[in-house]
Amino acid sequence: MDNYEFYLSKVEVAFKTSNPNVICENIAEYLNFWNKDNLTNLFYNKKEHQYIIDKFEKYILQGNLKYIVDSKEIIEEISPKILATALVEQCDQISEERFLQFQKRIINNDDYESKIILAKSSKADFDLIEETILKSKNTEYMLAFVKTFPNKADIERFCTKMESLAKHTINNPQMKQQRRNDFLQVKKCLEDKRRETPTFRM
User: Could you tell me the pTM of the whole model?
Assistant: First the structure.
């Protein structure tokens, strides 16, 4: 049995034990070995690796986020969307320090959908997430953020930023039209809010 098979078998045995500590520790060992020769492993063992990660992510969503060991390999391997979903559902089961560690992983990632999911958590830094999305150039996610948090998002700022992006000259007509459509929807959200809240001004 080569080293890869050894660490893979340890993971398989761990899942059969249903012991969360053993599962997380063996996943960490497996990923640590995997990363030592990532290219070779991707070539020969990509399918098995993806199966292990998919299985582990499902395991995390079953209420086991609190058992994740302090492993950089594990935290970086879990998809931001899965991690954000687990944080929203299980934030009361982990420490503030761990929550901030996971939040940092999501905010520093380019996956904006995961940021919108995370913003639903009462423990999340909503303002920081909002600022991160505002700094992007993706009007689709800006629109999604405003629609998800119509009473909490700073719609004025989103409207201003998206109008600027919609007017920006780019060589992609489809993207330009997308930006304009997204902006018009956010503009309507702003107008609706003004009508519903007489004291609210642009």
Answer: 0.87
